[in-house]
Amino acid sequence: MKEFGYDRAHDVQGAVALLGGDPEARFLGGGTNLVDLMKAGVERPSRLVDVRELPLGRIEFSPEDGLRIGATVTNSELAAHPEVRRNYPALAQAVLAGASGQLRNMATVGGNLLQRTRCGYFTDLTKPCNKRDPGSGCPAIEGEHHNHAVLGTSEHCVATHPSDMAVALTALDAVVAYETADGPGELPLSDLYLPVGDTPHLETALPAGALITAVTLPATPVATTSRYRKVRERASYAFAIGSVAAALDVRGDVVRDVRLAFGAVASRPWRATKAERLLTGGPVSAEAFAAAADAELAAARPLPHNGYKLTLMRNLVVAVLTELAEEAAR
Predict the structure, then answer these.
(1) 94 close to 245: Cβ distance less than 8 angstroms
(2) Contact 288, 279 (CB under 8 A)
(3) Residues 6+ apart with CB under 8 A from 158
(4) Listing from the earlier edge strand, what are the strands of the sheet with 183-188?
(5) How far apart are CA 8 and CA 270, in angstroms?
(6) Alpha-carbon distance 292 to 4, whole Å?
(7) Helices (H), 143-242
């Protein structure tokens, strides 16, 4: 591991100032991803700025304004919060599906959003990787890619984003608040992650040196009837091979409102806007749910060993929306 400096920040502006203009410095929250990457030699920061003691550890809810989650809230605190479980159940389910209790006790909301791909080529310094070393190539395209992306890929990268929490937040119209030396800013979570294009090493639209301070969710009635479903290759904690976050509001046999996002199929959480448009105002039926999923997945570009994800995601969408519709009918 490369030698690095360490500072502990006590206020937000102080944290931003400590990071300064050093492109090799990093903010440190729970460290559950960053420290592993440092041990592997993938991340080689010159300095760590510890933000765990910043006053960003509160969860606030109101029926009018919705939910505000401080960036240093741990995943365990988020999943256990009664207002989260009551008003945004898909978010609590996604967090609980994401990691073991020990990791959830350490991992922070801000850090979870910025975690990096678990592609084996990215974490193996003996292999080329355009995310780690731009222009070196993407061996996953011709190599091991059964759990790689099928949507939004390019010839430069087919890695997936690993966060479960970010999928639920994307479906629920979350907004990311951040602080820079020039002041505060906001980004819809759907705009936080950049398309992979020909620059897969550029992963977010955050300004240089920005510190995530909070995530906010609107007070959306449809969010109370929401669900997160994750499929993984083993029963113990593992990264998804496919996941769906959905919220559904029905009246009789008609879909009044729907929110839908996919995980483990793209370099970022995938908001299924085409499927949402097709479903809204349409019938509540397995056939309609399947047709909407097929329309969303029509743009997929599967590789030889990950085409199974199309069938998997179609079945997930139908199962989750059917369960939500039955729940609403009770």
Answers:
(1) yes
(2) yes
(3) 138, 140, 141, 145, 148, 149, 303
(4) 59-62, 66-70, 211-217, 175-180, 183-188
(5) 35
(6) 50
(7) 165-171, 189-192
Residue-wise DSSP of 122-183: HH-TTS--TTTSTTS--GGGTS--TTS--SS-BTTB------SHHHHHHHTT-EEEEEETTE
Give the bridge partners for 260, in sequence order.
Answer: 246
Number of H-type helices and E-type strands within the chain: 13, 12
User: Buried b vs exposed e over 142-155: b needs ≥16 C-beta within 10 Å?
Assistant: eeebebbbbbbbbe
Provide the phi-psi class of 37: left if phi over 0, else alpha when psi is between -120 and 50, else beta.
Answer: alpha
164 alpha carbon, distance to own chain's centre: 5
Q: How many CB atoms lie within 10 A of CB 86?
A: 11
Nearest-angstrom CA–CA distance, 313 and 309: 6
Please report, as a single letter, which amino acid is at residue 49.
V
Q: Please state, in angstroms and rounded to a whole number, the distance separating the CA atoms of residues 289 and 167.
A: 19
Max alpha carbon distance in the chain (Å)? 62
The CA distance from 39 to 24, in Å, is 16
Provide the 3-class DSSP secondary structure of residue 302: coil
CA dihedral sign, ordered 111, 116, 120, 126: negative
What pTM value is reported for the model? Answer: 0.97
* Residues counted in the chain: 330
**CB-CB contact of 276 with 270 (8 Å):** no
CA–CA distances in Å: residue 51 to residues 5, 33, 131, 179, 207: 14, 15, 26, 13, 18
Q: What is the dihedral of CA 300, 285, 271, 167, to 10 degrees?
A: -110
Average pLDDT along the chain, 330 residues, taken 10 residues at a time: 92 93 91 96 96 97 96 98 98 95 95 97 97 97 98 98 98 98 96 97 96 97 97 90 98 96 98 98 98 98 98 98 91
